[in-house]
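Archive entry. Fields below.
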Amino acid sequence: MSDLFDYTVRLGDDALIAAQRTAEWIAAAPQLEEDVALGNIGLDQLGQARSLLQYAGSLDGRTEDDLAYFREEREFRNLQLCELPNGDFAHAMARLLYFATYQHLLYEELRTCADETLAGVAGKAVKEVAYHVDHATQWVLRLGDGTEESHRRMQAALEALWPYTGEMFESDELIGRLAVAVDPAPLRAEWERRVLAVIDESTCSRPEASYQHTGGRSGRHTEHLGYLLAELQHVARSHPGATW
Amino acid sequence: MSDLFDYTVRLGDDALIAAQRTAEWIAAAPQLEEDVALGNIGLDQLGQARSLLQYAGSLDGRTEDDLAYFREEREFRNLQLCELPNGDFAHAMARLLYFATYQHLLYEELRTCADETLAGVAGKAVKEVAYHVDHATQWVLRLGDGTEESHRRMQAALEALWPYTGEMFESDELIGRLAVAVDPAPLRAEWERRVLAVIDESTCSRPEASYQHTGGRSGRHTEHLGYLLAELQHVARSHPGATW
Amino acid sequence: MLTRMDSFQATIDADGRIEPRDAMPEGYRKTLIRQIAQHAHSEIIGMQPEGNWISRAPSLRRKAILMAKVQDEAGHGLYLYAAAETLGVDRAELLDLLHAGRQKYSSIFNYPTLTWADIGAIGWLVDGAAIVNQVPLCRCSYGPYARAMVRVCKEESFHQRQGFEILHTLCNGTPGQKAMAQDALDRWWWPSLMMFGPPDAASTHSEQSMAWGIKRHSNDELRQRFVDMTVPQADILGLRVPDDGLVYDDATGHYTFTEPDYAELYEVVKGNGPCNEKRLAHRVKAHEDGAWVREAAAAYAAKRQEAVA
Amino acid sequence: MLTRMDSFQATIDADGRIEPRDAMPEGYRKTLIRQIAQHAHSEIIGMQPEGNWISRAPSLRRKAILMAKVQDEAGHGLYLYAAAETLGVDRAELLDLLHAGRQKYSSIFNYPTLTWADIGAIGWLVDGAAIVNQVPLCRCSYGPYARAMVRVCKEESFHQRQGFEILHTLCNGTPGQKAMAQDALDRWWWPSLMMFGPPDAASTHSEQSMAWGIKRHSNDELRQRFVDMTVPQADILGLRVPDDGLVYDDATGHYTFTEPDYAELYEVVKGNGPCNEKRLAHRVKAHEDGAWVREAAAAYAAKRQEAVA
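PREDICTED_STRUCTURE:
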């Protein structure tokens, strides 16, 4: 399998697993407007996943569904941040702020890359994730500067997920070899600037962590992903070869 | 498939799905002794499931694993009571009291049935479930007559699961046709006598229900079973034909 | 001189639209609130049985379609609560009534979704029945409700086609898939027929609603329309409608069919269906889990307001 | 006349057993409490990574074996807490220290179990290493601990064989299964080597523990013993140990191997491993969720007591 395949799968898996978690909020959100908003966001993420996995699949004769439903856990390449269980609504918004801000910076660069397909996907996606960032920002501000309880929960969520943000900016040999790949390491400073500005404004304090989780890009995940995949894949795997 | 197969699968599925839920308590019980006790109970249930599914499988050339891992949700014949999510420890003990008391009465009759294998399984199992009844009884008494909170939780659990007990005593055409089958309908009076005696002693009040759930014996389950099976079956289905 | 109530009756008689600021009889207002609220509640409770399969949808394309559909239902809930609010109640009140079990939602959502094929069956049958019920509501005498229904119906006919398409794919798939489709039809057929409510002879609210131009057709008329529309579609799918009494009557051009077991309907309406407890408990839990979020949003908004003032 | 402490030293020197009512230096008592508690904590935290696969075990036979194994670990926890209690502490205190992060458990359990093969690898490598560590403890100078270890070791050697057997089946299975087994060995090899603690040169508690007959062999000795035992088993499985420096030395009869990255060990011990937070949070949640149950049991017991009195 090619570097381009591997790289595209990373981005596709991020979006796919994020979509799966976002969708768990549907019919469980704090208010109906948020069911709609999270539905939109989940659909955007799923759409990105499909475009990326279709493209990856086209490089080695597989379909998006082959990649989503018939790979093992160790073959998934998403960030651990995306696979963590939902937690409360503050966790959902902290994750969305961290992840969408990263995606925004990444897609912004990717849309000028030499690979037309990736550039095209990124060009469409960058607008979507700008909305995600905005949505998350509004909620982090509201929750951080809302009630005592919401402040406490927002702070806890920002801290709980912070140790999963380092992974977003890891460079590796694949990134070095593949010209069209966006090196995420240099995006970190701007990501921190943006995210910390929101956190500061929210009256929450800046999270710190002595440890940063890693492994998603090489298929070493948290113990949560296995359960997510069992659910995601069970029907498809129960009917091998079927069309839906 | 024969009536004997269908009947044996009912009992086997009850035990299998109960074991799956009981096992979820391991490493999550209120105290270490209870991790051990629930481990024992889950192992007993799983052992019964294996004996019964092995026997059912032997009737039509399948293995216990074929039956456990490669049937669809609609082919499972367990009581809905067994598949409900665990809830709190009071729910676990209410379910065990209801289910094990039923199993005890059933196995007691089954051990004198004309089918040697079923009689043998029942003869071994009846001793195991007598212990389960005893364990559940002790806890229902402790929780019912413990603290205010435990009383409230025990009462809530007894009531929440009561609407799932009617299904245990349903007779149907299969039971009518199959000579070795134990008709559960006549067991109801003694079951109620035993269970209500425990509830009375626990200082809880007797639960009532205007509705009794049904459908498990014809494969109409709650929406919970599908998720349980996705988890149970995912690895096996991911490696069709493999030996473990 | 015409009183304001005369003007109401004149509008109704002329098949015109009553708007929020128009005078209306209290019974008209109450009937509408009850009906629109029940309709809104049905949309949001209806998210659950379908939402149950989003995480397990067997292809990414189907997953996306299903997510969009469930999200549309949340949107329908929003329009409908907004329509109800034009009658002087607010959404929070209506939700409290739902959560307390004092307002109903469509009983169809008290049945479980047990396989992927159920997602097809719900789209085809349940949305199909909803459309038959709702298309006449696009001409309802109350303007805001009628306009909400126009939008809802347009999306629902889209959902209905998607449901049919799911089943069509299954019916042309493996034997296991085809069996799954038949099983879904077997389970959803009778509950779908009951979506039109009790038979006319036993229907309580109908007459006055007809007079007010809220309701345009009787339950039995709509049920017949649904059967006539659906049976030929089942034939296209190659599925058998689970009714031995089903016969096409050349003379009338309609299907004769067996009446569903209304005793079951009454039980489910009373709360005694397979999923009544689960649906309401899920809804209440989401609401309670979200209370701190709504409070925070309100507190934040109040602080901004203060800052501006 | 001999003092009671002289008698302690005499018993140690004669390789005899110290029993709970015997005199012992405070340092001896504290060291033992710390070690036994850490060992007990390791048993109960160790239930989690394996418990993670009970619901997904790919055959019913393996599911039963795994359930029994995890249940044995709970049992080991019980014996070990009981052994610690003979030294004048109680289980509740020790659990509080664990939950507060003030007592440790084996760092090996801070790695995730990612595939079914990890259950084989844990049985084979982790229980294998535990046995190498623990067999000498069956001759530990403190009687209750030594006796608990006899029982624990017997069960663990059983677990170790089961783990090997899981991998043996995978290695003789499909290519996918074999790859899963190799992957598990690749991930668990280095953490297993670290189970013997820091290299002797950096080991802090060892010398005094040796003098007291608590410890019988150095970390590096035990590590070597483990490597010598395990590498031939890997050969039988047809798996490659992920160490390019691994060579059999004919002269010494031992394998030469690359030292693990102890910096990682120190990080994980400090709390910075992939699952430290998850393991402790799960444990604390089970304890907190169970508080009302333990309170109820105590209240009930008190009521019975009163009734009898």
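CURATOR_NOTE: The beta strands of chain D are 247-249, 254-256.
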